[in-house]
Design a protein that fits this description.
By secondary structure, the chain is α+β, with helices and mostly antiparallel strands. It contains three helices and five strands, in the order βααββαββ. The chain has a single domain (21-109, 117-148), classed as 2-Layer Sandwich (Heat Shock Protein 90). Residues 1-31 are annotated as: Disordered.
């Protein structure tokens, strides 16, 4: 079931079964990045593993691109969720437009001309896994991706 209630406050530690942590207060890419980082720090990291910082940077880049696209091209951000999994962090970004981005299922090639735009989806394709674009019954769409995380190697060993 897709959670569409974006007015309810997000509660630390509250989990919506199957959908991750709703972040109703997220309205900007900066807030979404902070929320995604908090999921890594609070749920993915543990006493036995810590996410590689480069992977967290990649996560934050994808979050920025997806949320910015929802705001710029999707009629506004309708919801944002992040959930830790054994493989990384699953994101769900909802917007108000049913239009599927043309580049969403492309090869991930960077644009040939350097006009300062068109880099978002190629980066998402290169950094994310399990990309899906699902229509929402009430209108709009949900874009879901998995951002893989790897554990830092233990530098004390050896």
């Amino acid at each position: 079931m897709d959670r569409t209630d974006v007015a309810a406050p997000a509660h630390p530690g509250h989990r919506t079964p199957g959908n991750g942590h709703p972040a109703a207060s997220v309205r900007t890419a900066a807030e979404a990045r902070a929320h995604a980082r908090s999921v890594v720090l609070g749920e993915w990291n543990s006493a036995s593993r810590t996410a590689r910082e480069q992977d967290v940077v990649d996560l934050q880049l994808v979050v920025s691109e997806l949320v910015s696209n929802a705001v710029r091209h999707g009629g506004g951000l309708a919801g944002f969720e992040a959930a830790a999994t054994a493989q990384g962090v699953r994101l769900a970004v909802r917007d108000h437009s049913a239009a599927v981005p043309a580049a969403a299922f492309g090869p991930g090639d960077l644009p040939g001309d350097h006009r300062g735009s068109g880099y978002g989806w190629p980066l998402i394709i290169r950094l994310a896994r399990d990309i899906s674009v699902e229509p929402r019954p009430e209108g709009g769409k949900t874009i879901r991706v998995l951002i893989p995380l790897r554990a830092e190697e233990d530098r004390r060993a050896g």
